[in-house]
Amino acid sequence: MARGVLQELYDRLPPGVQDMFVATAGWRSYRARFGSHFRANLRDISRTDFLDADEVRADQDRRLAETLRWAADTVPYYRELFRREGIDPAKIRSVEELPRIPFLDKETVRLRGNDLLSDGFSSRILIPGRSSGTTGTALRLVHTREALGWEYAVIWRQRGWFGFLLGDRFAGFGGQPVVPFEQQEPPFWRSDLARGRVLFSLYHMKPEFLPYYAAELRQRGYLFWQGYPSSIALVCEYLLENGIDLRTAAPGAVFTSSETLLDFHRDRIVQATRAPVADRYGNAELSVSAVQCPEGRYHVDTEFCALEIEPHEEGPDWVRGEVIATGFANRAMPLIRYRTGDVATLRKQVGCPCGRKRPVVEELDGRIEDYVVTPDGRRIGRMDHVFKDALLVKEAQILQTAANAILVRIAPRPGYGPDAQARIDREFRARLGRDIAVRYELVDAIPREANGKFRAVISSLAGGRLRAPADASD
Predict the structure, then answer these.
(1) Do 52 and 141 belong to one domain?
(2) Same structural domain for residues 308 and 454?
(3) Domain check: are 426 and 387 in the same one?
(4) Which is it for the CA torsion 31, 36, 39, 42, positive or negative?
(5) At residue 1, does pLDDT exceed 60?
(6) Residue closest to 284 by CA, chosen among 107, 175, 131
(7) What CATH number is given to the structural domain containing 90?
């Protein structure tokens, strides 16, 4: 049954029954992510957390050698690549020698995805996935349970640095449409008992509903918050503007991910919660991971990946450019020297006051998107979920010049037609409702900004622009 149809059926259920569905989905998710692989990996990386710099490099090089050997033995794409390029992967003994291997780009993953699958696994045990589709190519991905366990091991290692354990209750601000858009009464959240979290809807954050969010967050004892920084910042902006002090209900930390954490978002969250904010940089392809420590520095999770920088600029102590990632966790579909499309600044010297000796990423320049503003005043970020299954879309961009309408530019692939557009429209309606007009325009390519950057959402509305409050002038 199509996901859009399932969403429509879910939306018709009463909130209590929706909680049951969320809890059931949460239990399935828990089993996939937090089984024996998760526990073993968390033990493993807890052991390597404070290795010295030489030991970190040796451990990473060992994991890299295992990944290259596995790719050469079991992945058709790499067998062909290594043979064609005359590469002996056994002679690549360190991350510094990785440039012998050509880059892997997103279009190759899209076109050669089946050849990138390892023949070392039965298809019955693999877990399908998708990457986001607005800022580039929506990719069909495949993961193993072990890979998901690896990802959540590095996530929970970071949370452990701040004193939290698996099972602690937390507030989640992600993109799941868990509350029907048309719902006009609280609760604007649903409980995922299996994973110890309550999922707050990002699609109901308008002025008259935010008091309910604030009341819930003040009284329920969420030990930490986690989610998209732009959405958490909206809640914090409401708390600050209305002088609401969370007092003893304040979270012990706020963990952000999936968007670029902007300075003014961080400042707003810290002011409202008095809690440390710790970000994570990762991707759906499971090829890269870097997390902020209590000192605020991003440490590359060297047990999970190797991170290179293709230089755009360079100084004595740093190098800035595109992130090239090699993932160690996902053996079902290993990506080696993968162009992420993200830009980062890497310190040339390791070291941090926290005592960890892994490489330090100084700055991340990922996606920055405006909000979409609905006719009833909701401000909604991270619209790329609409395109996550849109494999017939090369890229897409949302433009908004009025609160009652948006224009969606789509650069289509061959085969794109009414059925594909109808599926996209259902995703928009689930997140924006039916009071906003959605017009589609097919184009050959999406224009870039003067600085060459792609913007997935562009708003000319004062409430939609993503900028620091001090810059607001209209």
Answers:
(1) yes
(2) no
(3) yes
(4) negative
(5) no
(6) 131
(7) 3.40.50.12780
Beta carbons within 8 Å of 245's beta carbon, 6+ residues apart:
none
Q: What is the mean pLDDT of the segment spanning 60-87? A: 98
**Are 193 and 172 in contact, with CB atoms under 8 Å apart?**
no
Could you tell me if 288 and 146 lie in one domain? yes
| CATH, residue 210 | 3.40.50
Same domain, 228 and 262: yes
12 CB neighbour count, 10 Å cutoff: 9
pLDDT value, residue 456: 83
390 or 405, which is more confident? 405
* C-alpha neighbours within 13 Å on the C-beta side of residue 19: 12
Q: What does the pLDDT look like over 333-345, one tens digit per residue? A: 999 999 998 889 9
Q: What is the Cα–Cα distance from 138 to 130, expressed in whole angstroms?
A: 7
Residue 14 and residue 24 in one domain: yes
pLDDT digits 0-9 by tens, 342-368: 889 999 998 899 999 999 998 887 666
The pLDDT of residue 473:
32
State which residues form the domain around 228. Answer: 3-32+163-275
Residue 28 has pLDDT above 60, yes or no: yes
CB atoms within 10 A of CB 377: 13
pLDDT at 87 over 70: yes
Instruction: Report the CATH number that the domain containing residue 458 is assigned in CATH.
Output: 3.30.300.30
Residue 395, both tokens: 């890229």
pLDDT tens across 153-186, in order?
999 999 999 999 999 999 999 888 899 999 999 9
Question: Looking at 225, 247, 275, which one is the last position of a domain?
Answer: 275
> Does 250 share its domain with 323?
no
**What is the structure's pLDDT at 210?**
96
pLDDT greater than 50 at residue 468: no
* pLDDT reported for residue 135: 52
What mean pLDDT value characterizes the chain?
90
Q: Where does 253-386 have alpha helices with state H?
A: 263-273
First to last CA, the chain: 47
Give the count of domains, the chain: 3
Structure tokens at 99: 């440039």
Last residue of a domain, one of 343, 365, 387: 365
SS3 329: coil
- Do 60 and 123 lie in one domain? The reply is yes
Per-residue tokens: 356: 């960890």
Instruction: Give the integer Cα–Cα distance in Å for 373 and 400.
Output: 8
- DSSP-derived secondary structure for 42-103: HHHHHHTTT--HHHHHHHHHHHHHHHHHHHHHH-HHHHHHHHHHT--GGG--SGGGGGGSPP
Packed helices 229-241 and 263-273: angle between N→C axes, nearest 10 degrees: 50
Stated pTM of the model = 0.85
Lookup result for tokens 């609760």? 187
